[in-house]
Specification:
This protein is of the alpha+beta class. Helix content is about 25%, strand content about 25%.
């Protein structure tokens, strides 16, 4: 198990810390400066959860395409800064504008968050 930081962190400090964690360590979020374990090592989602996420991604992608909007759907990865001391990792999100560059861990200003 990964040792969690004992001090309060900013969102920027958390992103740096999170980038250095191995994928098998689990998934982490930052709430009010405290690192929490969203899913611990070995966590596996149930089929109804990943089916719901897939359906949401497809529905949002199709709606964006039909509307002709310059928006994008992302799932299972991007972090969202909710405050200077809070970072969440939603199941699905929508953001508009240019695509975020490769290797980026944070999506700024999402319009839709699905958890």
């Amino acid at each position: 198990m990964t040792d969690l930081p004992k001090h309060k962190m900013t969102a920027d400090e958390f992103l740096t810390w999170a980038e250095n964690q191995l994928p098998e360590a689990g998934k982490f979020e930052l709430w009010d400066g405290e690192v929490i374990v969203r899913h611990g090592p070995g966590f596996e989602e149930r089929s109804e959860h990943w089916e719901a996420k897939a359906a949401m991604v497809l529905a949002l992608h199709d709606a964006i395409k039909r509307a002709g909007l310059p928006c994008h759907v992302a799932s299972d990865g991007p972090m969202v800064r909710l405050s200077p001391y809070t970072m969440a990792k939603p199941d699905v999100l929508v953001y508009c504008g240019p695509k975020v560059p490769r290797g980026v861990h944070e999506v700024p200003n999402p319009l839709v968050l699905v958890e």
